Structures are given as C-alpha cells and as structure tokens.
Amino acid sequence: MNSSYARFATINVIGLLLCGLLFTWIARDGALDFRLAHLFFDPSTHSFPLRVSDALDFWGHTVLKLFTVWILVIAGVAMVASNWVESLKPWRRALFVFVVMAACAAYLVQTLKGASVHSCPWDINTFGGSAQWFPLFGPIGAMSGPGLCWPGGHASGGFAVMAGYFALRDSKAKLARLILVFSLAIGALMSVVQMARGAHFLSHNLWSMWLVWATCFVIDALMRIILPPRAAA
Fold first, then answer.
1. Residue 45 CA: distances (Å) to CA of 36, 42, 73, 124, 127
2. Which residues are listed as membrane-spanning (predicted)?
C-alpha cells in the first residue's frame, strides 16, 4: 500500500465513521427529519400535496431513475464492447469497476429497503398516516406500519454514480472529481424530490449515500488487490 492510497483510505475511514455517527444521531433524534418533512406537508389536508403531482412524479422520479439506470446500462455495454473496440480498451478496468461498484451498492440499498421496518413519512401518523415513528436501531413500535422505507432507494441511483470517482481516481483524477460532484448533485436532487413527495426523510437519503460510499470504498480496496490500477501518465 503506497502512501497516497494510505492517506486516501484513512480519510475515507474517518469520514465514514464520523458521518455514520452524525447520520445515526439525525435518524435517532428525528427533529431535523420532521422539521424538513413539515415544509412539504399541508396540515389542512393532512397530506403531502406534491405526492399527487404528475409532473414531479414523472420528471423527478421516473425520468431521473431511468437516467441513472441507463448510465449503468451504457457502462455495462461499453465494458463488454471493450473486448473488441480498440478505443474502449484503455477504459476496460474502469468500466468493470464502475459497473461492479454501482450494481453492488444499488443492490445493497434495495435489499435493506426491502427488509426495512421503518415507514415512509406519508405513512406516519404525524403526516396523516397510521404508523408510529421510531428511531433508527431503536425498539420496533407496535404500530410500525408497512415499513420498506429505509434507506432511500430512489436517491441511491444518483449516489451510485460516485462509483465512477473510485474507478477513475488513479487514472483520470480530474474526471473522477467531476463525476463525484455530479453524483452528489444528482443524488441530492433525487433526495429532495422524494422528501417533497413525502416518500422519505432526510436521514433515509443520507444513509443511502453512506451505504453507497462505504460499498464503493470496500470494493475499491479489494479491486486494488485483484485488479491493480494503472497510474495516470
């Protein structure tokens, strides 16, 4: 392990630990989650008005989701094509690492979400539903509701693009940083869309980002052993 990667790994480990503690506190306290949810909640109708917005559902949910899915699909096709297309061969490792990281991160988030006992804001009694809110890692309430809402699945598609940062950090540092900024921006946008619709709390999306980040970091470390990267010229 060279000194540059050791420094990078140390920063990531410390960052993951500190963010994990912060996100745990936010999810267990609930105050910030509820304060932000109330910004989009109409107490007179006991509902989230934007939940029934066709425009937000189409552009903010369907289109953005398809956009991130197609990024992964195109990367996968390019990865396969790199076996024959000369111009893609230098990108083969990066494409492979990106696809593996993004797919694993998205799968992890969706798996956890599918087994979650935490309900969405629109299902919670404070916001017109019937479920009772309870803190992350806390005792499950008797009226926990339908669950299936932690971590944020929609935002994970945007955050998963950060796999490109890890895949290109050694060979194309400037492009890698641009991809990281883009990933965080699109992930944040997808997070706000779901919060506005009453589909997720802020902490759900923060944990989605954390899980994607941690997955990419761990896979990156393993890939350096299995498939060492080539340094930039």
1. 18, 6, 41, 15, 10
2. 6-27, 66-85, 91-109, 175-195, 207-227
**CA 67/CA 69 separation, integer angstroms:** 5
Task: Give 229's pLDDT tier (boundaries 50, 70, 90).
Answer: confident
pLDDT in tens, 52-66: 999 999 999 999 999
Domain ranges in the chain are: 3-226
Q: How far is CA 90 from CA 142, 220, 227, in A?
A: 55, 18, 14
Residue 202 in 3-state DSSP? helix
Residue from 148, 197, 214 nearest 41 by CA: 197
Q: Are 200 and 164 in contact (CB under 8 A)?
A: no
CA distance 150 to 131: 14
Angle formed by the axes of helices 64-81 and 92-114, nearest 10°: 140
Tokens representing 217? 């970091």
Q: How confident is the model at residue 233 (pLDDT cuts 50, 70, 90)?
A: very low
Binned at pLDDT 50, 70 and 90, residue 141 comes out as confident
The answer, yes or no, to whether residue 23 has pLDDT greater than 80, is yes
